[in-house]
């Protein structure tokens, strides 16, 4: 029986990955923070370790005899004030787990990254792939630190570590306890979304993503990126489809492109002079505002052709599953 370690096991992706691997009868080890002690029922057949990817000694013990490591732990923030924390977790933490895996001779590492590192376009007809190289500034905290994390992965690949990278679009579905992508669903559900930005985005359902990650562990080529994205659409279409799924009135007012700079100035003011900026994850920050006027469209052709990935779940199905989860857990 293969022994598999998951970092960030209590997170959106990590928790869904745990259940999928347990169903397939793998020996699963979870790296959890102390605050996540009650994330999984006792009857779930897995081994639990508590600590942080900042604890190198712990990581060295956990990877002993491990065949595969899914590195899902990450610090998600779009605020400049969180840069040091994001760097410590996303970059140094990734380096720690890679070093432990390399020294222990782990057979395969699957590094979970984001499509955010591939950038965005001003052209609504442009579709980015794994070769995209976009200059990312330090102000873009999450994308910048995740890009540096990918560079760490590539350094260890050059040393001989077998590792592949998953570049993941915005995820919808059950398990999004912190309402990362779910903030849009919650906003429409509560009737708080009045305006829709003019840009575009992409999505993947959590169920399809988990299937892709399992395929990546088995078939992914070392040193290669693989994009997991089901569909691209503008924000107007996204809001329309979510609202229809929720059986609610859709926001129809699309912000004009010329509103970008006034909106940006207003957002900077809000972040500077209110408690808004102190929230862990916000529906809108300066960085998210910038991206909402751009197009984040991606191609999953490589994952489909090389891994045999076949995304099947529609946005509507993923939103329905997310809504059930949010209600069951009193999140909305």
From TrEMBL:
SUPFAM superfamilies in the cross-refs: NAD(P)-binding Rossmann-fold domains (SSF51735)
Organism: Candidatus Jettenia caeni
Highest taxon in the source lineage: Bacteria
Every NAD-dependent epimerase/dehydratase domain range: 4-226
Pfam family, one: Epimerase
InterPro entries: Epimerase_deHydtase, Lipid_A_modif_metabolic_enz, NAD(P)-bd_dom_sf
Protein name (database record): NAD-dependent epimerase/dehydratase
